[in-house]
Design brief:
The protein is of the alpha+beta class and about 1050 residues long. Among the domains are: about 180 residues, Rossmann fold; about 60 residues; about 300 residues, no CATH class. It is about 35% helix and about 25% strand. It has 20 helices and 46 strands. Strands 1, 2, 3, 4, 5, 6, 7 and 11 form an eight-stranded mixed sheet that branches. Strands 21, 22, 23, 24 and 25 form a five-stranded antiparallel sheet that branches. Strands 26, 27, 28, 29 and 30 form a five-stranded antiparallel sheet that branches. Strand 37 and strand 38 form a beta hairpin. Helix 2 packs parallel to helix 4, helix 10 runs antiparallel to helix 11 and helix 12 runs antiparallel to helix 13. This is Beta-propeller fold lactonase family protein.
């Protein structure tokens, strides 16, 4: 079925002072736009031009008639000044028209005639509501008469021309127009007849052009007798311009149906049958219902006749398509040429003896009558008499039923089927890849599909739903492709991410097969969207209405739409900003490289796509496109807050902001789509091309810009992980790792020890080489010159002399995967916890030998601490999420555990008070409420000190006087706890990704290791705000 397209042009403000400003056109075109664009009435795709220069109007008319189909219905409407030059040629005046240069500043009738001639549409309607005038210079006489002869200028096959008048109604005196501007009664009655259905003169539910002209002619002549509208057509069959939305049974027929006399009801039955034959879907449905009701009439004659007629009728017609009501064609008599048509006689009133029944009508849409030569100035056809009430023996032909959507698929349907199938397969692959990553990598992997399966699940579900929408015939034309395009746009976030992950893994020599499934799924989804886009392009069912609304309410709605779009993009923009800040502060965090690129692209799409959806037409496609984007974008927003901030649960704020903003977009898009179109934006295709170019430039530019914040590949970055302070507080020892910034494996790292002078806060000497991954450090108390550093990868402890910057002898073997190091206050022994073998290794520092065999502690040995007198050693168990959580107490004299104390939560760190009476234990779970507990060493009773929803206790250090505790986590920096009042002091001090904290023995300074920044933060124990940073990354 062809499209119904309309181009409405109105000009009422002119730069030429000689052209009088008109008051009617602005209101005329707004009202007509609303009626023609109403899908219930006319269902046209309306484009409006108001007060535009001639070159823009000419371009729009050319595009309007270009590339149309034979079954399209085109309607071109103009209201404003029509000018006749001294050669008698007609021109339509535009905003920039000059009367002394009509050829180059106006739209000539010849141009429009040629454009219509080149259009293959078989139904072209031209409506001119002009105030004609002459454009002759002063002192010259016009050639010809005062008639414009509009109809003669637009003769042609397949055309219908309606004009409000054909005579010049203005004369010019000098450079000013004289005479009063006639209010446009023509367009007013034209609009009214369509809006309320009063132009449906024969009562069949359809308003044809013949009926519309007849109705308007009567009303115009009645209001302004000096004005005579004209009509000319050369079209096969009738042209249905609109539907009568207020159709109801005629009064006489309703009276007959309600009559107590059976013969009246019997006569009404025949009238119902005739209406069923000639009417549209609405009329047929209503008349059929009335006939069905008559089958239960108390008169056997009436009920039997109604049953016979009902059996003779065809099955009920399928519901009408709102956007483009099918014209119901029937033969009509050739038009007669009459200089001035006489008004039609009024409709006859129902009579007791109606006239004979006319011959049966031709079924709808059967355009078979022979062509008739074009006739000029056709008078309005006479109004049809009311339906007869005389029985008719003939059997009516079955009305045409619209083909079912399940018809055999053509080439376009095959494209849609392939696109839908690809989308479903893509969703399955994305889910399969996410599951495979979970099974093969567990929780120790980054990325949305592994750490946060919400994105993978959300995108996959949306893709499958969109694919099914494309496969389903009912939603295949618009809704399915719209959903698919919206979801695919959101999935480009994941496409960029998984591409970056795969490239990174390939560079590291460890590609993951499960990643390929997710990447292939995203690529298939993009391919499906391309096929769906090709289908839409071939069907030409979708377009962008780049219009600037005229009324204030529509402009406010558009502004709200823009603000909501910015609000939705703000969600991704804030996260992009946080990622940039993290990359700038912690260049060693390699995953941030692949995390940043998707957000850079996502921000651009979040700005662009909702605006495109708000301007797209028809409304079903626009809302489907926006719904698909909402579904995918919401999955991104749920993942966003968890990913960057390391929280297992989504940030509800981002989800609410993103969802609310896009909900506003849905409402705004629908509101704009229902309003009349406004002024079009010039050069639509170029504007779209420029928008795509800007999207690529901004997106790629953002990626390149952000990428400059990290060192290039191949450069090693120093990461600080553990600290220790000499007994005299003169030196700080920092263990570091050198590793590539692009997420290399631990085997590519190299450990170092850096000595810092606390007086100058500068490194001293050259770094001392260590093993691959130092995890703990202890300083011998006698002179502070010997250090014991545990290495996780080599399962060993290295002994160094810091005074000479050299290692001493070989390494000391310990258990599997050492995790922490603790030393007695006198430096006689070193205790090393081994998380891999769940043991503790004891080293005698006098000979650097291992004492006995490793002591079995229990599952998941973690942090360790020694009492001040060296009699007790405390080690945490239960580092894994499943527990159980315990604190193992070991007797240092016989090196045997003497008990295990149950803990209420998973411990992350342990410290002993300076007097040895209390043991402090802290928890650190991302996104959870963390707690600090204290255990009385005498009774071994555990109680809670503080809880904190903001910070954690990943590592701790107690002040030498026992008054304060300093705790750090990986996000919020340093937190101070007053151990006397058991209260958190102030707010956490942000020092970056803190991984270790120590307090100097003199109690004056706090030192914090910033892992990925390669720095050590120094602050006073009395004033944490004055932070000094020692850069070790250089």
């Amino acid at each position: 079925m062809g499209r119904r397209v309309a181009l409405l042009i109105a000009t009422y403000e002119y730069r030429d002072a000689g052209l009088r400003r008109l008051t009617a056109p602005a209101h005329d075109v707004e009202a007509l736009t609303a009626v023609l664009g109403d899908p219930r009435i006319a269902g046209f795709e309306v484009t409006t031009l108001i007060n535009e220069p001639h070159y823009r109007v000419g371009e729009a008319i050319g595009d309007f008639y270009h590339d149309r189909r034979r079954d399209d219905l085109t309607l071109l409407y103009f209201t404003g000044h029509g000018l006749k030059d001294d050669q008698g040629r007609l021109h339509l005046a535009m905003a920039d028209t000059r009367r002394d240069s009509l050829m180059f500043t106006a739209i000539s009738a010849d141009q429009i005639d040629q454009a219509m001639e080149g259009c293959v549409s078989r139904r072209k309607v031209l409506i001119l509501d002009c105030c004609y005038s002459g454009a002759y210079p002063p002192g010259r006489l016009a050639k010809g008469d005062d008639q414009v002869h509009t109809l003669q200028r637009f003769q042609g096959h397949g055309r219908t021309v309606l004009t409000a008048s054909d005579a010049t109604q203005y004369s010019f005196e000098g450079d000013r127009a004289s005479g009063e501007a006639v209010q446009s009664v023509f367009t007013r009655h034209l609009t009214a007849g369509l809006r309320d259905g009063s132009a449906d003169l024969d009562g069949d539910g359809d308003i044809t052009l013949d009926e519309l002209y007849s109705y308007v002619y009567d009303r115009v002549v009645e209001d302004t007798p000096q004005q005579r509208p004209k009509k000319q057509d050369d079209v096969q069959g009738r042209t249905v311009i609109a539907r009568n939305v207020n159709w109801d049974l005629p009064v006489y027929l309703r009276n007959a149906l309600a009559s107590p006399i059976a013969t009246d009801r019997l006569g009404a039955l025949d009238a119902l049958v005739r209406l069923h034959r000639i009417g549209n879907e609405t009329v047929r449905a209503r008349t059929r219902a009335e006939i069905e009701q008559l089958t239960g009439d108390d008169s056997r004659t009436v009920s039997a006749s109604a049953a016979d007629r009902l059996r003779a009728l065809a099955p009920p017609a399928a519901p009408a398509r709102v956007a483009a009501p099918p014209p119901s064609a029937r033969p009509r008599a050739p038009a007669e040429s009459v200089p001035e048509p006489a008004p039609p006689p009024p409709a006859a009133q129902p009579a007791a003896s109606p006239p004979e029944t006319p011959p049966p009508e031709v079924p709808p849409q059967l355009e078979t009558p022979p062509e008739t030569p074009p006739q000029l100035e056709t008078p309005p056809p006479e109004a049809a008499p009311p339906p007869e009430v005389k029985p008719a023996p003939e059997v009516e032909p079955a009305p045409e039923v619209e083909p079912a959507p399940e018809a055999a698929p053509g080439r376009r349907d095959r494209l849609a089927v392939v696109a839908g199938a690809l989308a479903v397969v893509a969703g399955v692959l994305i889910v399969a890849g996410a599951i495979a990553r979970q099974l093969t990598s567990g929780v120790n992997v980054s990325g949305p599909a592994a750490d946060h399966p919400r994105y993978a699940a959300g995108i996959a579900l949306a893709a499958i739903v969109a694919g099914l929408g494309v496969l389903r015939p009912a939603t295949r034309p618009l809704v399915g492709p719209g959903l698919l395009l919206g979801v695919t746009a959101a999935s480009w976030w994941g496409l960029v991410f998984f591409t970056g992950e795969l490239i990174r893994d390939a560079l590291l020599g460890d590609p993951r097969r499960e990643l390929r499934l997710e990447l292939i799924g995203h690529l298939l989804l993009t391919a499906a969207a391309v096929l769906a886009g090709l289908q839409l392009r071939r069907d030409r069912a979708v377009r962008l209405r780049l219009m600037l609304p005229h009324d204030r309410a529509a402009r406010v709605t558009l502004l709200l739409c823009v603000l909501a779009t910015v609000g939705g993009a703000l969600v991704l923009g804030v996260q992009l900003y946080e990622l940039v800040q993290l990359r700038e502060t912690y260049p060693g965090f390699g995953d941030l490289a692949t995390h940043t690129w998707p957000y850079a692209i996502g921000v651009v799409l979040a700005l662009l796509l909702p605006l495109v959806a708000a301007l797209a037409a028809p409304i079903r496609f626009a809302l489907a496109l926006l719904t698909g984007w909402v579904a995918g974008g919401w999955a991104i927003s749920l993942t966003t807050g968890t990913w960057v901030r390391g929280r297992p649960d989504p940030d509800r704020t981002w989800a609410i902001v993103f969802g609310a903003a896009l909900l506003v977009l849905l409402v705004a898009a629908e509101s704009l789509a229902r309003r009349p179109a406004g002024t079009p934006v010039r050069l639509t295709r170029r504007l779209l091309a420029m928008t795509l170019a800007v999207t690529l430039i901004v997106g790629c530019g953002a990626v390149v810009l952000v990428d400059q914040l990290t060192p290039p590949a191949g450069i090693l970055v120093r990461l600080v992980n553990r600290l220790a302070v000499s007994p005299d507080s003169d030196r700080v020892y920092a263990t570091t790792m050198l590793r590539p910034p692009f997420g290399a494996r631990n085997s590519a790292a190299r450990g170092e020890l850096i000595v810092i002078d606390t007086k100058t806060d500068e490194p001293v000497g050259e770094p001392i080489g260590l093993r691959e991954m130092p995890v703990g450090i202890a300083v011998k108390a006698d002179d502070g010159g010997y250090l014991y550093v545990a290495d996780r990868n080599s399962d060993s402890v290295t002994v160094l002399t810091a005074r000479e910057n050299a290692t001493i002898g070989g390494v000391i073997p310990v258990g599997d995967e050492p995790s922490d190091v603790a030393m007695t206050r006198d430096g006689g022994r070193v205790y090393v916890t081994n998380s891999g073998s769940d043991t503790m290794t004891i080293i005698q520092t006098s000979n650097n030998g291992v004492i006995g065999t490793p002591v079995k502690l229990g599952e998941d040995a973690g942090a360790a601490a020694v009492s001040p007198d060296g009699s007790r050693v405390y080690a945490t168990n239960g580092a894994a999420e499943q527990g159980p959580y315990r604190l193992t107490v070991m007797d240092a004299d016989n090196n045997l555990p003497v008990g295990q104390v149950p803990l209420p939560g998973r411990p992350a760190s342990v410290e002993v008070s300076p007097d040895g009476k209390r043991v402090y234990l802290g928890s650190y779970d991302v996104g959870e409420v963390n707690r600090l507990w204290v255990m009385d060493t005498a009774s071994r009773q555990v109680s809670e000190v503080v809880t904190s929803p903001e910070t954690g206790f990943a590592d701790m250090a107690v002040h030498p006087d026992g008054s304060r505790l300093y705790a750090i986590d990986l996000v919020n920096g340093v937190t101070v706890v007053d151990l006397t009042s058991r209260q958190i002091v102030g707010r956490p001090v942000d020092v970056g990704v803190a991984i270790d904290v120590v307090v100097s023995p003199d109690g004056e300074r706090v030192y914090v290791a910033n892992a990925y920044a390669g720095t050590v933060s120094v602050m006073s124990t009395t004033d944490l705000t004055g932070v000094t940073t020692i850069d070790l990354a250089a």
